[in-house]
Structure formats: C-alpha cells, structure tokens
Amino acid sequence: MSEYISPDIRALIDRLEQEQLLTKDEFVRLISGRSKAASEYLFEKAQRIRQRIYGREVYIRGLIEFTNYCRNDCYYCGIRRSNKKADRYRLTQAQILNCCRLGYQLGFRTFVLQGGQDAELVFFGLFQIVGLQAVGGEIHEGGPGTSRGAQVESPIHDVL
Questions:
Q1: Separation of alpha carbons 16 and 38, rounded Å
Q2: How far apart, in whole angstroms, are the C-alpha atoms of residue 46 and residue 49?
Q3: What contacts 17, CB < 8 A, 6 or more positions away?
Q4: CA 141 to CA 134: how far, in whole Å?
Q5: Strand intervals (E) in 31-127
Q6: Strand, helix or coil at 99?
C-alpha cells in the first residue's frame, strides 16, 4: 500500500473490524474518505475475517422457483400480475422434490424455495405443499418416522 490512509479512516476500519458496528455518520465518513489504500486495508481485514469464519469453502444453494404467479404488480418484476406474456406455472410437490433430489445429486446441500406472491399458496402451508418436515437436522418426505431422510449440512452461518 503506497497511498496514505488518514488516521481517522484507519481507526474507523479497525473499529469496524473489532466491534462490527459503526454509526451512520461514521459509515458516511468511511465512504467519503475512501482511497485505494483504505480500500485495500479494509479488504485485507475482510478477507482475514472471511477465512477465519468460512475457511476456503464456498457455500452454494440450489434455487427452486416453485411458482411464478404473483398477486403483486411491481413494475420492475418480470412475473408481475399484469405481465400477460409470462408463461405461468406452479410446480407440484413431486416436481419440487425431484428438483431437490437432482440438486442433491449435483452437490447442493441447501435449497431456497422462491416464488411470486401466489394467492393459491399460503406461506405457512408451504411445508405441507412440499410434504417436507425438518427434524433434527434431517429433511424428511412425509414428516418424521419415514425412512427416506436426506442429511442436510446447514452450519448456522450458512443460514444467515
């Protein structure tokens, strides 16, 4: 790092590392006072923290969009209610489970179920729709007591 870092900016970066918290005004000062050297200093610290927590592992998730019906009409969104060109679908329970099986075979160990705000599907009933139940770190088809469970690797930091 050849460029100078002001003591104020260095102190903010160090405090952010130690306390993981800055005020809004401090963040504004940090961003306003950014330089190539300050960015490198910050990124080096962030890299060390990331490696300490996650090591060299990469966490990826399988994304399953189970419906593209949506009651909302957000202009920016391709699945908005008024988009008459969208080819609408809802995956069945069997289709969702097949996606999970295939994803598991491909190495995915966590899955995100994503969809529009579908009036036909209620969030709290999603596990019933999918037919899954989480029990003691395992995901079971049809709930506990079934013989077809898949072990899920889900460290707490992977859920954040």
A1: 13
A2: 5
A3: 45, 49
A4: 9
A5: 62-67, 111-115
A6: helix
Q: What is the pLDDT of residues 91-114, one digit of tens each?
A: 888 888 899 899 999 988 888 888
Burial class (CB in 10 A: 0-12, 13-18, 19+), 75: exposed
0.70 surpassed by pTM:
no
Token pair, residue 89, equals 């679908």
Q: Locate tokens 């088809």: which residue? A: 141
**Dist. CA 6–CA 14, nearest whole Å:** 12
Q: Tokens for 56, please give them.
A: 């060299």
Q: Which amino acid is at 104?
A: Y
Q: Are 129 and 139 in contact (CB under 8 A)?
A: no
